[in-house]
Specification:
The protein is α/β, with parallel strands linked by helices. It has six helices and eight strands, in the order βββαβαβαααβαββ. The protein has one domain: Rossmann fold, CATH 3.40.50.
């Protein structure tokens, strides 16, 4: 009989590390005149009720995965999203300061959402030119990219080879991780939904493969 070579499901190569990237659940609504509290210059709103439900759905989806590590950022919306998964798996979340959201300068505290909803011309310029640092006093793009790169390397080192980790992160950070993995346009991946799941494989030599982006089937209709 001739040799046969069927198609098979993808398996990470020996020595690779897989990271599940979860965007935090929906946070509280921004209200004009009532800015969110800041933590080290970053808006730090808690989860909204919808976000709490998304966190439970994420835990149900991932609790049977063979997770070795669980990562969050200093901002409470990631920690609250990770809490049901931490309870289900018994993992202690490890805080990654490098992976806090991009700093939005004068538009922190929820102002970005408000300006976008009100049709601020600068918001559309940001989208067109794909640069958060068009906002006054926002974090320079190269500095943001470098700290995200360091954060991913730290997660890979902490998770180890032939292992799986999960990280609850922010939309801008997930977008930057995916940009670096694919060498895409800056904003090609900034629209991850709240509670969505993306998967990144990091090879032993450091090469990155984006396996999936923005899966939301576990959230329901």
């Amino acid at each position: 009989m001739a040799d046969r070579y069927p198609q098979r499901r993808f398996m990470p190569p020996p020595g690779a590390t897989e990271l599940i990237l979860v965007r935090h659940g929906a946070s509280m609504a921004a209200v004009p005149g009532e800015p969110f509290d800041l933590l080290d210059g970053h808006a730090d709103p808690p989860l909204a009720p919808d976000g709490e439900e998304q966190a439970v759905a994420v835990a149900r989806q991932l609790e049977t995965e063979s997770l070795g590590k669980l990562f969050v950022t200093p901002l409470q919306r990631t920690q609250q999203t990770a809490a049901p998964l931490a309870t289900a798996t018994g993992l202690e979340p490890h805080v990654m300061p490098e992976l806090r959201e991009v700093r939005l300068g004068d538009w922190e505290g929820g102002m970005l959402r408000i300006r976008a909803a009100q049709g601020d011309p600068l918001f559309f310029e940001i989208i067109e030119k794909e640069r958060w640092d068009l906002i006054p006093n926002a974090e320079p793009a190269d500095e943001f990219a470098e700290r995200v790169r360091r954060g991913v390397e730290a997660m890979v080192a902490a998770t180890g080879p032939d292992a799986l980790g999960a990280a609850v992160l922010h939309g801008g950070v997930i977008g930057e991780i995916c940009r670096q993995a694919t060498r895409s346009r800056p904003f090609a991946f900034v629209h991850a939904d709240n509670g969505s799941i993306s998967r990144l494989v990091v090879m032993p030599g450091g090469r990155q493969l984006l396996r999936s982006f923005n899966s939301t089937a576990h959230l329901g209709p």
